[in-house]
């Protein structure tokens, strides 16, 4: 029954995509983040729904008039340069065939992200995209939060099967990136039941992050909480709320959770932590020896035998920074960090441009996107999510937000100029005759 339902839902959207191309972006994002077909157990499980939607979207794009050009600003130039550099490193990789195979998968995500910029042309469509992302990942975070409460936090919380965020650690960071978007949707929603639902979703999502028993997520929560506190206008009450939540979590979670979190202080005795340090040193050694890095899919026993301090501990980097460093060398890491830095700058420009109206939806979204970036950059330090869709989608959303803000500012300036022009052309009232002239 699930297979039939999912198939009918996805195929039912195809005519809508042909008529309105941007709907293809929404459906593709839903499939990419939620993997609804993986929740079935029959014929739909292995159906190439994402490819079917993408092909339909490309056909619709050929005849679509409601689209915009990709802004050729510094962020986009560095972003495209990074994509080209990944092609160079893949061709010069230790294992070129495996590297190019993965590069093709990365390109698919990048192309769809740029199509998002082309087709999401206004604030309404942008909000629809955010709703899809929040709903897709929120489905698992809310379910995971309820599961954590019902089981007393004794089990891990996992994400959609066969996805980039299936693992508990990856799901926790993705949920932390989505929670600020839930807050944004709460701020712009007017229906009280939707607002209640979003509050419930935020609470359950936080519970799910704790229930994931991810040490990286715990550090990311601390970073996000600290950033929230710094930006809060009511720092005293915010501090009380943060401390209260921390105390409740500490009292509620089982002993197994406490033991896992306490292992952060004793990382020298933890095999997982030491293997990561070994992989990080491997990344540095590779980047120092090869300007293009080792290329994608280079984390093998033979490459570790050359570059790792301990060749027997063959693990991926579990870090967005060290994975990019090993895959694409120092130039690749610099480009990657520059894209993130420019995205932060773009959001700061929007915040400054709307500072006179802090309740502006653009202002709220820009601030929440910065919180999402904090979650990604902090939690990603311990996870290999460099090529995951969500951070690149956030970068695209930040670019769209900048474009919308610029367009609104230009429209406002044009309206003011038009009003001043009309006033200058309007006839002036004749001055009354002076008493002395009579």
What order do the helices and strands come in, and which of them pair?
Blueprint: H1 2-19, H2 21-34, H3 49-63, H4 74-91, H5 96-119, H6 123-151, H7 168-188, H8 192-211, H9 215-231, H10 235-252, H11 255-262, H12 271-289, H13 301-307, H14 320-353, H15 361-379, H16 389-425
Helix pairs in contact: 1-2, 1-3, 2-3, 2-6, 4-5, 4-14, 5-16, 6-7, 6-8, 7-8, 7-9, 7-15, 9-10, 9-15, 12-14, 14-15, 14-16, 15-16
Q: Can you put this structure into words, describing what you see?
A:
This protein is an all-alpha fold. The chain has three domains: 1-67, no CATH class; 71-119 and 270-408, no CATH class; 129-265, no CATH class. It contains 16 helices and no strands.
Please sum up the structure shown.
The chain is mainly α and 438 residues long. It has helices at residues 2-19, 21-34, 49-63, 74-91, 96-119, 123-151, 168-188, 192-211, 215-231, 235-252, 255-262, 271-289, 301-307, 320-353, 361-379, 389-425. Helix 5 runs parallel beside helix 16 and helix 15 runs antiparallel to helix 16.
N- and C-termini, Cα separation: 96 Å
Order of helices and strands: HHHHHHHHHHHHHHHH
Oligomer: single chain
Structural class: mainly alpha
Provide the number of structural domains: 3
Considering DSSP H and I runs of 4 or more, what fraction of the residues is helical?
A: over 70%
Number of separate helices: 16
Strand fraction equals under 5%
Number of strands: 0
Runs in which pLDDT lies below 50 for 5 or more consecutive residues are 431-438
Basic shape: globular
